[in-house]
Amino acid sequence: MSSRSSSFLDNNKIKIEKKQCQIDQHQKNDNFYCHSCKVLVCSSCKKKQHRDHFIDKLDNVYQEILKTLSTFTTGMLDWKQYQQREKHINELIFQQDVQQHYDGQINLISQLFRQLHDTLHVKEVELKKELKSYYDDSLEHYTTLISELEDQNCKIHVI
Ligand SMILES: [Zn+2]
Ligand SMILES: [Zn+2]
Q: Where is the B box-type domain (predicted)?
């Protein structure tokens, strides 16, 4: 009885072992990853089709992926900080160089035109004053002439 039973089990075992692992179906539940073939393998096919390949426990592979993701996320954060710093520096440069230069030029133009306005106003007053003195002279001359003419006219009338 015992020998028959053992023989039956042995036969079944052989059958199972002959069964090949499929890419998505394995004989054993334990999970490994074959880096050489880039597929999941179990301890059974690990010993056969992937005998001399670079095999790793799936947990280790997950840990590696998580580590890579974490490094990537940190890198992204660093890049974001770098961009923000660059933006801030550019704003400062704009404020210091462009804005200050522009404000300075605007002030200079205002100052120059204020001086020009003042100078022109002084010239305007001077010219009007000079013209007024000519006018006054002419008026005086005219008045004198008229008065002399009237005087002469009177004399002629008397004669
Ligand atoms: Zn397998
Ligand atoms: Zn392999």
A: 16-58
